[in-house]
Amino acid sequence: MTTLHDPRLGGPAPATGAGRLPRVPFPTIDEVSRHCVQDEEPETVHIEVHLPGRPDPDRLRAAFHEALRKHPRILMRQAPGAWWRRRYEWELTDGPDVDPVSFPPPAADALDRARERSMAQCPPLDAAPPIRLEQVVTPGEPGCVLVLTINHTALDGPSCLRILATAATLYGGAENPPAPPPSRAAAGAPAAPAERAGRTAADVARSLTRSARIAADTRAPGRTGNGMLLLDLPVPARWPAPADGSVRPTVNDQLMVAVCLTAARWNRLHGRPAAPVRVTMPIDDRPRAAEMPIGNGTRLVDVDFAALREADPRLLAAEHPDPAAVARLVHRTAAVTRALKATPAAPMRTAGTLLTAPVLPVGLRAALTRTARRVAGPWTSTVLLSNIGRVAFPLDFGDAGRARAVWFSAPARMPRGLAVTCASTAGRLHLTLRWSRALLDDAGGAALAGLLTRSLALASPGNGPATAGGERPGPPPETGGTADPVPRKGGGT
Questions:
Q1: pTM of this prediction?
Q2: Quick one: which of 77, 464, 54, 455 has its CA closest to 260?
Q3: Residues forming CATH 3.30.559.10 domain(s) in the chain
C-alpha cells in the first residue's frame, strides 16, 4: 500500500494498492443526497446557456473533454462496495467512462425535450462523469442552447459553470477570467437583532413551529417529477445605502423578501392558515478561479421570516402589502443575511455532520437519514432560493459568441417542493421556478411565477400596491419580462 499526493483530491490521496484508482470519501452533502435518492424526483441540476452562434460539434466535444481533464475532480464515479462499509467513496478515473457530449437532431421542440430530460433523467453515479452536455438547435432560430444536466449528489451549479468556462476558453482561444467576487465584510458587519440579544425563549418557540408549506394547486394529483418555468426579467434596482450606515440590501435580499411575500400571499389566496415562512439560502465562499474546488461546495442556511416580520403582522396578510413595511423587511433581511454569510458553519449544520459520521455502516446511516428527513419534514423550509448572482464568467465561445443568457434550476423534492433559482447576465435577471408536480401543475406554476414577479417589484425601491389576484393570480405582466414555460405534458417521469 502506498500514499500519494494527488492534486485531484486537493491534498494527500488515500492509500492505494497496485492498479487501484485514487478514492475520496463522500463529503457531507454528497452522502446525505445519496441516502435520499428518489427515482420519482431525480436529484438533477439543470443549466442552459444561450449562445448567439453554434459551436462546431467536433471542436466543442474536444474542448469539453479537455476541460474535464483540467478539472479531474469531476472525472469520478461511485466506487462499488457493500452496505456495511463505513463510507461511500468517489473513485477518480483516468478519463470518461461514457461520452458526456451529445447533439440531438434539430427540431421545433428540441429545447423543450432537452429540459424534460434534464429534470427526469439523472446522469448515473456509476459512470464518470456524472454530467451531461447537449447542444440544442431549433430550426429557423439563430444560435443554440447548451443544456447541461448534473447529478446533484456529485456536483453543484457553480462548479459546472467553472468547467464550462474552461471549455469555452479551450474552444474559443480567449481567456474567460472570472469577475472579482463581491466584497463581503466579515468583520464589523451589523449583527441581526436576534444575534445581538442571543437566543430568546421566543426564538426557541419559533424554531419549534412548523414551517409554512406552499398550498397545493394541481388538477392532476399524484403525478411525479418536476415542472419548470423560466423568466427573463430586468435586474431590479438596488436600495440606496442607508443614511445610518447599516447594511445596504442586495438584490439577493430583495429576492428573499419577494419569495417570502409570494409564499405568504399564495397561501392566503388558497385559504391556508398563516405559518412561519422559512427560506433556505445556499452560501458559496469558493473562489471562481481555476483552483476553484469542484463538487458540492455550498453551505445551507435558513432565514426565518417569522422573527423578521413580527413588528408588521399585516405585511404578509394584507392583500396589498404596505410599501413602508416591505422596505423595513428588506432592510432587516439584509442584516440577517450579512451575518449568516460572515459566520462559518458546517455545510448542513450539526445534524448533517452527525448523520454522516462514519460510525455505523452506510446502509444503516442511509435508513437513519431517510427517517430523520421524514420526521423533520414539517420543519423543512418553505422554499429554496439559490441565487448565484452575476455569472462570474463571460462564457466566450469564440466564433459562437458569448453567452447572452444563463438559466439554472435546482431539484424541487417534496416536502418542500419548490425551488427558485436565478442568475444575471448582461443586465438581465434569469429566474427559474421549479416545482414538484405533486404540488403544482403547469398552470399553478405559471400563476405562482406571476405572483413572484409582482412581489419582486414590491421588494424594489419605488414599490407600489400589488395587483389584486384571484384564486390563481395571472401570468407575469408583459412589461415585467417574458416567461418560457416547459410544455404542460413535459417534466414528468
A1: 0.86
A2: 455
A3: 22-172
